[in-house]
Amino acid sequence: MESYALLIAATLNAGTLLAIASLGLLINEKAGIVNLGAEGIMLCAAIAGFATVVHTGSDTMGFAAGMGAGALMAAIFGGLVIWLNTNQYATGLALSLFGGGFSAFVGISYVQEKIPQRPVFAIPGLSDIPFLGSAVFKQHPLVYLTVVFAGALIWFLYRTRSGLILRSVGESPESAHALGYPVRRIRLLAVIVGGALCGLAGAYLSIVYTPGWTQDMVAGKGWIALALTTFATWRPARVLLGAYLFGGVTMLDFHLQSIGVDIPSQLLSSMPYVATIVVLALISRNPRWIRINMPASIGKPFYPGS
After folding, report:
1. pLDDT at position 103
2. Contact 167, 295 (CB under 8 A)
3. Which ranges does the record mark as transmembrane (predicted)?
């Protein structure tokens, strides 16, 4: 039973990483912007957060540095695609490639660095409950805050005027502009917030999830986060559920190895990516379902006055 409790705990940990990044990308896409640079943003944020903790010893400063790096890169991306009307997909890919190379260059001197011993988190009283205590109530605070944030995002998008305006910009920027809303500024703000969340995910990776720095340590999680927004049909609750599903698939690799299942490690390591392809293939069989939920102007440039 203890091994299954540890599997659930690891699933929540891995799912949190994907959920933070996916919720950020969902905010982007609700405003009509597709950012394919998530992988590069997360890598730069991971080294920024890790380096900050190395020099300051503060996790809070590390998370702030990761969010700052993510917001800065997203702001540059936003300026290019929103004001200069560069192609969103090409610019995002360029950002991802840049982030991979830049983080590798900056991180050379941090490969062997260590950060202070991680504190052990536990909710008093609840952490002593058999099975559930180990599975659920001994997580990093950010795991619980991510669930709270997902709930707050649902409320913001579907219960507030600001959320309605954000969604209207993603559905019909021309109509929003005609009503007097600053479409470009709203889109830029959404992109920056989304980038900051991707940055937080990158910092969480290098500070909490696997403390340390290695080149390309994000290992495709940025692309899985992008796929999750489609998998969840742009719904925050489904993003959270999907993140835990993919987190569980990732952790199943280690669990099966620990109980002696004789399956090639290469096959087990590929399971999260195979699951991503399978899920997207299944969803694509119902294009009407995607069309109903997908923001109508996603990926499309907006030209004021045209």
Report:
1. 95
2. yes
3. 6-26, 33-55, 61-84, 91-111, 141-158, 188-211, 267-284
